[in-house]
């Protein structure tokens, strides 16, 4: 039995609280795998797949940035949104990209919002099944 715990919290509620053998999170600069006994850390998340693996299955979710903390075999993920990967389609990713590219860029703050939307859509495209 695994002693690694994964807790995912969004602004609305605790979305996930499960035990796992391993967890993979999308950091803003690459993926990181976490096993039981991992050193404590805090990291900034990017857009991408959160994979929670048990002996019998792997559950995968799309997360939209946030932060991860690892401490005493508890992986705490704070993110804006958690969506099962099975709900992310190629069409939804394509629609998100089209909407992002159609955003205005007339002001500097518009460019920041558009860049984040494009990054999110690119991550959705990578994980779409």
In the CATH scheme, the class of the largest domain would be Mainly Beta
Q: Number of domains in the coordinates? A: 2
| Estimated radius of gyration | 16 Å
3D shape: globular
How many strands appear in the DSSP assignment? 8
Query: What count of helical segments does DSSP give?
Result: 2
Topology pattern, helix = H, strand = E: EEEEEEEEHH
* Helix share bin: 10-25%
Multimeric state: single chain
Mean pLDDT: 93
Largest sheet: 8 strands, mixed
CATH superfamily of the largest domain: F0F1 ATP synthase delta/epsilon subunit, N-terminal
CATH architecture of the largest domain: Sandwich
Describe the structure.
This is ATP synthase epsilon chain. Pfam families: ATP-synt_DE_N (PF02823). Belongs to the ATPase epsilon chain family. With 129 residues, the chain is an alpha+beta fold. Helix 1 runs antiparallel to helix 2. It is built from two helices and eight strands, in the order E-E-E-E-E-E-E-E-H-H. Strands 1, 2, 3, 4, 5, 6, 7 and 8 form an eight-stranded mixed beta sheet that branches. The radius of gyration is 16 Å and the shape is globular. It folds into two domains: 4-84, ATP Synthase, domain 1 (Sandwich); 88-127.
Secondary-structure map:
Elements: E1 4-9, E2 14-20, E3 22-27, E4 30-35, E5 41-53, E6 58-71, E7 74-78, E8 82-84, H1 90-101, H2 108-127
Q: How is this structure best summarized?
A:
The protein is an alpha+beta fold. The protein has two helices and eight strands.
Question: What would the keywords be for this entry?
Answer:
129 residues, alpha+beta, 2 domains, 8-stranded mixed β-sheet, 2 helices, 8 strands, globular, ATP synthesis
